[in-house]
Design brief:
The protein has 200 residues and is α/β, with parallel strands linked by helices. The chain has helices at 14-17, 19-26, 63-73, 92-98, 116-122, 138-149, 166-170, 189-192, and strands spanning 2-7, 31-36, 49-50, 60-61, 78-89, 103-108, 125-128, 181-182, 185-186. A five-stranded parallel beta sheet has the order 2-1-6-5-7, with helices on both faces. It has a two-stranded antiparallel sheet with strand order 3-4. Strands 8-9 form a two-stranded antiparallel ribbon. It binds ligand 21W.
């Protein structure tokens, strides 16, 4: 799977280059690309935003900057997602659906907001990661990439994934390891008398 992330803050994505996702990326299992939308500004000062029509505080991201970054990565088979607090809340079913796509384009939202015309033009699927306010769409994009990556062949070892339906996951049972006694608390007797399936 290829994932192109359109953002004004590509530095925010360092954590994803580490760990499991980073390894999958190095092994070319997932191909994650960060596109700095600022590079698509035609302005000599690389300006990407401007004051809102109708007034109000803050600035709005220019539509041409978003559109040109989008066009630089768009293909016939692209699925485009706009991470925005107004979007539909991400859930495991959606994560599974997205994991079947060949190419994701993630547009990171921004407190300032993006000019509505480019959103109307691209007509991306709008996704939120929950009902709380963050400073941008970068963490949500990483959350989505992390959740989707788990379903890509070769990212995780198989055992963890298939049998583990979301329902099973919610009904996760408590787990124990050594020592047998910790601060006076024992491992449940029923578990101590059973050999691990690994050793069977
Ligand atoms: C916060 C964007 C507030 C927009 C007028 C002008 C992406 C997110 C985000 C952010 C606003 C997600 C305004 C859960 C999130 C995200 C930054 C509202 C204010 N009014 N999922 N500007 N929570 N957050 N706009 O915050 O981009 S997915």
């Amino acid at each position: 799977m290829r994932i192109d992330i359109l953002t004004l803050f590509p530095e925010g994505f360092e954590p994803i280059k580490q760990s499991i996702i980073g390894r999958a990326s190095q092994n070319k299992i997932i191909d994650i690309n960060l596109i700095n939308m600022r590079e698509f500004s035609k302005d000599k000062h690389k300006k990407v935003d401007d004051t809102p029509y109708g007034g109000g505080a803050g600035m709005v991201i220019r539509p041409d900057v978003v559109y040109d970054s989008y066009k630089s990565v768009y293909k016939e088979n692209s699925k485009t997602i706009y991470l925005t607090p107004q979007g539909k809340t991400l859930n495991q079913k959606k994560v599974q659906e997205l994991s079947k796509e060949q190419h994701l384009i993630l547009i990171c939202g921004h407190y300032e907001g993006i000019d509505q015309r480019v959103i109307d033009e691209i007509a991306p699927e709008e996704i939120s990661i929950g009902d709380y306010v963050l400073t941008g769409g970068e963490l949500p994009a990483m959350v989505l990439v992390d959740a989707v990556s788990r379903y890509i062949d070769g990212v995780l070892n198989k055992a963890s994934i298939e049998e583990e339906s979301f329902t099973n996951n919610l009904l996760e049972y408590p787990q124990y390891t050594r020592p047998e006694k910790f601060l006076g608390r024992e491992v449940p007797e029923i578990l101590k008398s059973r050999k691990s399936s690994k050793n069977r």
